[in-house]
User: Fold these one by one.
Assistant:
Number 1:
Amino acid sequence: MVVSNRLPFTYTRAGDGLKRQPSPGGLVSALEPVLRRRGGTWIGWPGVELKKGERVSTRADKYRIKPVALSENDVARYYHGFSNRTLWPLFHSLPALSRFERKDWNTYSEVNECFAEATAKHAADAGLVWIHDYHLMLAPEFLRSMSHEARLAFFLHIPFPPYDVFRLCPWDHELLRGLLACNLIGFHVESYARNFFDCAERILGARVDRGAMVVEHGDRVARVGIFPIGIEFALYQEKAMKARREPHRERIVLGVDRLDYTKGIPERIRAFERLLELHPRHKENVVFLQLAVPSRSQVAEYRELKSEIDELVGRVNGRFATATWSPIRYLYRSLGQERLCGMYRDADVALVTPLRDGMNLVAKEYVACQVDDPGVLILSQMAGAAETMREALLVNPFDLDETARQIHRALTMEETERASRIASLRRRERRDDVEAWVNQFLDVGAEEQAGLEPISEDEIQGWLRGYVKSYPLCVFLDYDGTLTPLVDHPSKARLAPEMREALLACARRDDTDLSIVSGRALDDIRRIVGESGLIYAGNHGLEVEGGAIDSFRHEDLIHYGERIQELTSVLEELASDGAWTEPKGPTLTFHLRSVPERKRKRLMEKVRNVIMEHGYQPRDAHAAIEARPPIGWDKGRAVLHILRECYGPAWSERVRVIYVGDDQTDEDAFRFLAGLAMTFRVGSAETPTSALRRLPNVEDVRSLLDWIGSRPPADPALLHASR
């Protein structure tokens, strides 16, 4: 199943109904022939807002088409807005052109959910759901929540930007989480994968194994692959051989592009102008033929680009043209494939110089069409194709003098060198055609991916050594789901002997203070851990005691003693289908872990309403709802209280802080400690987190504590200052 923004056919409304024509773009040209041969399903937008009851035709298709209906507003904000005014320039490393508008983002998210819903209806029948390109980066996560067992893959057809560029996006976390819901994530070239690894590691705190090409995000594992896309080589070669031959007296330098500011057309025109300045011998002997296919004319930047190109062409022609020769021929239109192949075949030089490009199939199409006198490919170093098309003349498109020199070199190159370069390029592109690309991707997509090895001491040291240095440590730990696995009843959550020993190894150190911060009642958490010398914070920090600090109980709790009893009675009456209420002094927890999924949502809504009616705040937890007094206190404030009591107002200068938790209630602490601590969220990747890193499970928490307990001692001077 293929899922992409656009169906392989774009529909327009005519007098006698909907008409369709092939959709433009490299994605369609690469995938449509494959589905035509293999069969399958293609889900996408038909290109027109469908009226009520209106359907697109699927006749004569060798595969099924499932349209996703979008409104004009959807297209304006999701497609022209966030996709093409935000992601497109950002991912092509042109952030100054990106616009970050909340309304565009909201619509992008809504449309991605619509695509996921349309896909989920058919995902069970698909061996692989293959989602394509930057328009649908959130769809995998939505689809994963709807179809947990589906095998999902994603391929990005444009570059993935470096960390310093990608993090400019206000929704960088959400986009990465969307991709990491997939089993396989594909990129054209290795440098894009390296950028993705950096972002996943530095923004989400995911574990990355660059050697194994794997990302571990919470309890999920995604494989990353390098798949340079090819073209339908045999088809282009055949069309080039059949195309009409037109005589021309000048030699031709050819540029073929969709009109886009990433393609470097103005720079290319200036480089050709520089050629004529540096090498006057080419005047009246060479023509630069630029074909620009109209694109995104609704976007202001594209209209401005067209005006700039028009002016440049006019200036260069005005400067150099003679009565019988114009140096530049500029075509602003689409051409049929056969005529285009003839132009490729007849061009002496192909000038393919994008400022940034995911791959660039024009370079490959030109090579496939070189069936006569061999031409020369000049290719931008900034195109993904440059990593494999090594026999091309590579240029920096911003260096006009160098580009001009390479055009001159191409025009004066001996035939034996031209033939050798083109022969090697053709051999590789014939072998690595689009069918080979699809087969490779599907083969890898069908493989089961093993998870990473358990976290090692070296890995933890890499995370913490630079942060901890020789400072003393203050470590905060949640209990359920962090020190013990989640169980069906809190009474069963017992510390394993190995975990208890790891805790004690930390607690015995003079340079380490340990605090347990739990949603359990204070007496309960003290009893179940049972170790002296630790600080215990119960009821999400409303009650604190232990260690060398004074006992603390929030002063406002006295007002909620009777009210919590009333709330408990009402919730106990609501408890059914395995639900039960856990009183915890000033708070309570309503547990739903044993409630069937189909009944859970409705019961949760009732419970939330009852909690609010009694003047409490409902907070979601793992298969539970917490009822807390609305007194502006949480785990984050409790952590601040403990740090100030232990180390004084300047605690951040005296101690290093680590916080580990697995629950939504720990997010309050993660947010408070942002920039001030190393924070770890344990467990599922389904929930967003403010923690710096994720740990998949309790065993990895124990590995972290083992490292803390065995690390080199703190500097005595720093230890003294902290006390």
Number 2:
Amino acid sequence: MAFRPHENLWQITDGQRLRYLGAVLAMGVTNLCIFAAPFIGGYAIDVVVEDDFAYGHPWLVDASTALFGEITHVGYLWFSALVALLITAFGGCFLFLRGRFAALASENITRQLREMLFSRLHHVQASFYDTADTGDLVQRCSSDVETIRVFLASDIIEIGRAIMLLLCVMPFLLTKDERLAWLSLCLMPFLAIGAYIFFSKVKEVFQITDESEAAMTATLQENLTGIRVVRAFARQGFEIEKFGEKNAAFRDNNYRLIQLMGYYWATSDLFAMSQIGIVLFVGAVFIQQGSLTAGDLFAIMTSVSMVIWPVRHMGRVLTDSGKAVVSLGRINEVLTEAEESQEVVPPAGRARGEINFERLSFAYGSGLPVVLDDISLHIAAGETIAFVGPPGSGKSTLIRVLLRLYPYQSGTVQLDAQDITTINRQWLRAQVGVVLQDPFLYSRSVAANLAVGRPGAPHQDIIAACQDAAIHQSIQSFPDTFNAMVGERGVSLSGGQRQRLALARALLKDAPILVLDDSLSAVDTGTERDILQALSARRGRQTTIIIAHRLSSVIDADRIVVLDHGRIVQLGNHATLAATDGPYQRLYAIQGALDASIQADVAVTERS
């Protein structure tokens, strides 16, 4: 999908303007029908008041005579009412068309906006999410889009309606009484000026209100996601107070917005009623002077009322347009975010899995500390290689660079002797199966989560992947087995089960490169041994990269890379590194002593 942000509300209607034109034209026909009723009513009033059919409309008089055989007051009034009813019904049909055209146009536009936003959020650079607030993004994709939909569904048509009403009414008023025609517009400039001032004020206040609502939504989303942590630390009171502060800020800002609207409605009502009062008072004087009939005054009064309220209503239209402008600006902030470059033609076939890092250096941003410093390493296709080191040494960052989640500053990274910066990102990531320490699971069934790795995989392959990940027995114990729901983020599973299910998903993908980023940290040692044995049986089928803090996970690797402060400080197999003085030997000794102590404590507990 092409990402083309819209600079203003006119551009956003591109592709739907014919529908809006149809809606405006339908509204025009409706307005003509609506105005016909006061005309007919005015003639009827004059016929009754003056007791003279000469004051009636000739066509209505002739048609009434032809229908009833003779002209009577009752016949004329009944026929006039019937004609007014039919014209109103005809106008109602066009009013329906107006609503249909406007609804189709607005829904299509907002649907496109939502899809553009959702798609863009999948294409922005990974660094965007380092500072983005999930609750705020949800607000932009839902509330801000809805604000624009409300404006597009009704307010654009209201603008056209007000203009067309003025264009329709003025000729009629001028034919009835030129003096009242101009007098009926004397206060409308003040309404228009007031609406403009209101628009300039409300736009700023709405932006503040919208941002405070986004902050409140973000707080709510964050707390619901981490509700178990909140309860575990007994922080309910603190978090409720924090949410209360955000809620109060939103309330206060929204109150300011409502207060502004109250000032506008009160002032505009005063002007609107004053305008009607002026016409009524002057019209009564003209009737007393004999220069205006009661029926003409009725028609003029009704017509002026039909125009003045839509003009006064422009304040609400401008309010919604101000909100829509703010919302469109917030949406454009996402749509204008830099996206990942996407090479058009991906490489053909399946990667072999050979990886080469050459003098690679990387930092997460300008001025930030270097995370990877002059890394040079060749990983053969089918090799099992492990990375160990203290937290912050750059182990996980190396994988992010390999997946092109972040651009590196210097050096090269190659896959099968091809620079990854020239490889299509989607194809590149399809060649890598990744299992993270804190894996993400969808709120779907076990089968649906596995299908993410390889949609449509044969059942025997699913079973084999689950057995290799030591999760098959657990799945069989679920009441609905593979159809069991795992809950949001896999909440119904234990930490070990989540990791093993994510591992099964990655194994099912059968990518040429498998990355295990501390993905066995939550499983017990027996289960870990079973998984490692299964992975050993698969050795050679894919390049396997293991990142771990627990050395039992890396002992059988072909090579072990020890990282410290972003540099390779040791490289070799387990036997060589364990016998060489250095960080690995010290870490192995510490973990060995710790494991021995734990086993001794367990033995003592069992004897007692």
